[in-house]
Structure formats: C-alpha cells, structure tokens
Amino acid sequence: AGALVTEPRLATLPARVLDARGVEYEAEGIIEAIRRWAYRYGEPPTVADWDPTRAYRIGQQRRAVRFHAGEWPSADIVRTAFRTFNAAVEAAGITPQPTPRRAPPRVAMRPPRTPDSASRLLSVAMEQARADVRRRGPEQIADQLRAVSGARRAGDPDALRAELVRLVGRVLAWADALPEQAR
C-alpha cells in the first residue's frame, strides 16, 4: 500500500451524506471503506474503482467487477463528503495512487451499445445525480453542460455520449425531486 499521511483533513466535512437509495455515509465510514479496499486489494481505490460506469468507459471492467463484489460508497459520495477523491484517501492515512496518463480505450474492450445498456447507464446517471447532495437542479445541470461541451471539444464520441447520458440523468433526477404541485 502507500505511505502514511500525517494530517487527515476532517475539519470541514459534512456529518453525513445520503446516496440515491437513502443509504447514509459518514466520513469515518468512508475512511474505513478506503482502508478495507486497500487491505483487500493491496492499493488504495481510485475514482475508476468506485465509479463502475467510468471503469467500463475506459475499458477496465475488472474495476467495476471489484466494486460490485463488495459494499463500497460511490466515487460521487466520496467526493461529496471530501470534495476530492484523493482527499478522502489521504484522510484514510494512505497516499493516493498517481493519476495515470490516459490512453485511448480499445474498441474491443467497450461494452456493446444496446437499448439495455443505455437505460442502465441512465439509471446509474440518475442515481449519481440524486446522490450529489451538494447541489441540486440548475447547478448540477450547468456543471454537466460544461462537461458535455468539454467532451465535444475533445472529439471523443464515447466520452461525449457518456456526458450526454449524465446530463439526461441529472435533468430527470431534478424533475423527480420537484414537489408534486410544481410538476
């Protein structure tokens, strides 16, 4: 595993964070999950380890399989609680893994595009949007529009598709959260 960090950053964390299913996470529980992961797999988790959609998108299905094999908070939950994923890893007393250089994913590694995979991706995107308790509605959508624009400028059709699905998920999550009389 990595070297220990001397000063955890716990001073300004929220008391609790709820995911889309209503599961409550506290900072200490997230830290413990990071330590369990590092003990089990011999290295701290990365964003791709705790974001199965991203793992599939970058052609690393094994990361998604490991995530689903245990009880782990999502990368979005960790970022909600700690602002950045690496800040959470550091708070667990572990040095985060260096950010890898991005290689283009191999076509053969991508999951097939089927109507089922699109609806599954949309469900995940809606869950992630609901779990983002820091911002609601317009702020999430504005951030996501910027991500769509960045993916479009990068010229990566798979990244653009993923960001568009996330945008739709955020819009639908916002619509679901509106009070009945506002619909």
> How are the strands of the largest sheet arranged?
1-2
Termini Cα gap: 50 Å
How many beta-strand segments?
2
- pLDDT < 50 stretches: none
In DSSP terms (H or I, runs of 4 or more residues), the helix count works out at 8
The ordered string of helix (H) and strand (E) elements is EEHHHHHHHH
Percent in strands: under 5%
Helix content: 40-55%
**Which shape, going by the Cα principal axes?**
globular
Largest sheet: 2 strands, antiparallel
Structural class, by secondary structure, is: mainly alpha
C-alpha Rg (nearest Å)? 17 Å
Can you put this structure into words, describing what you see?
The protein is an all-alpha fold and 183 residues long. Helices cover 54% and strands 2% of the residues. It contains eight helices and two strands. α6 (115-131) crosses α8 (157-177). The longest helix is centred in the C-terminal third of the chain and has 21 residues, at 157-177. The chain starts with 16 loop residues before the first strand and ends in a 6-residue tail after the last helix.
Give a quick set of tags describing it.
single chain; mainly alpha; two-stranded antiparallel ribbon; 2 strands; 2% strand; globular
